Amino acid sequence: MKNTLYDVIVVGGGIAGYTAALTLKSLKRSCLWLGAELFGDKLTRAEYVRNFPALIGDGKEFSARLAAQMEHEDISFTQGRADGIYAGDPFTVTVGDIMYQGKAVILATGVETAGAVKGERDFLGRGVSYCAVCDGALYRGKTIAAVVSSEKFREEVEYLAGFAEKVHAFCLYKNASFRSENIIVHEEKPRAVEGGLRVERLITGEGALSVSGVFFLKNSAPPAALAGGLETEGDAVKTARDGSTNIAGLFAAGDVTGRPYQYVKAAGEGLVAAYSAHAFLNGARK
Ligand SMILES: Cc1cc2nc3c(=O)[nH]c(=O)nc-3n(C[C@H](O)[C@H](O)[C@H](O)COP(=O)(O)OP(=O)(O)OC[C@H]3O[C@@H](n4cnc5c(N)ncnc54)[C@H](O)[C@@H]3O)c2cc1C
Asked: Domains in the chain, please, with CATH?
């Protein structure tokens, strides 16, 4: 349990989150900038960035420049994947059993461009989960599946295997391997999640597989799965021009608010959300 109460918690380690943290610093607001990883693949892996002002180079060059600016401006980053954002006065953001508190929150968690599996959203909270640490223990002794977007989630799958009798890991990357013997690797994307009141089976290329739950382990979970009651249009958070959402004190920026998925738009929205959080704190929380 962390006792610090921040003015703003920024969730998401990409360019939107970074710009929000940088702007909050210039506004002299205390800020916890939290992200699953610093900058992340979408920044570091760009082959060539053609459309960010004053930048000539690839994603590595971009992130190196950001890192240099971060150091120069004394911006700190806290690594952690948020698994819950709870509205209140103050807000609570959880990372496993760690709780962070902030008077306002900026959500900048990006978007998962790979399409959802049919039925994935319908069974959210009824056997579909995006968080191994939060829900793994619910499946003690059961057979479950995990749809694993990258090697980065290997530990989460192993964690699930510590509870479940068997984990069918549908790995969307090549050469997946795990330590636990009760993890069965499949190299395909399942076609659908099906069931009645709860998840009962996963439809794959080889037929139906009986499972009690399915974990989707990916960089950006749908925002509504993170913050209950958050209004969305598809997977995009519904925002006003100032980045505000339907939850007072919760702002959103970057790809998470919808297209176009571009750095400049994400950075611009990070700045706008930071100013809006600042105004919110000036008005509502003097
Ligand atoms: C290969 C590639 C090349 C691209 N090239 C260009 C280009 O040249 N020009 C351009 O304008 N755009 C480009 N884009 C698009 C650009 O990457 C995105 O628009 C931009 O990164 C969006 O920034 P963001 O901060 O909103 O989201 P992201 O960059 O996706 O950052 C969000 C971060 O939040 C983290 N996160 C997610 N969930 C949580 C959580 N629960 N808790 C904590 N952290 C979390 C993720 O790990 C991620 O690092 C490219 C994208 C790709 C994939």
From this structure: 5-112+220-284 (3.50.50.60), 128-217 (3.50.50.60)
Give the position, in ligand 1's atom list, of the atom nearest the Cα of 260. Answer: 19
pLDDT at 125: 85
* pLDDT number for residue 284: 56
Binding site membership of 173 for ligand 1 (Cβ less than 6 Å): no
| Ligand 1 site, residue 169, Cβ cutoff 6 A | no
Ligand 1 centroid to 75 CA: how many Å?
A: 19
CB neighbourhood size of 59 (10 A): 19
Angle, helices 15-26/263-284, rounded to nearest 10 degrees: 40
Please measure the distance between the N-terminal and C-terminal CA atoms of the chain and give it in whole angstroms: 25
Closest ligand 1 atom to residue 16 Cα is 25
User: How confident is the model over 141-178, as pLDDT tens digits?
Assistant: 999 999 999 999 999 999 999 999 999 999 999 999 99
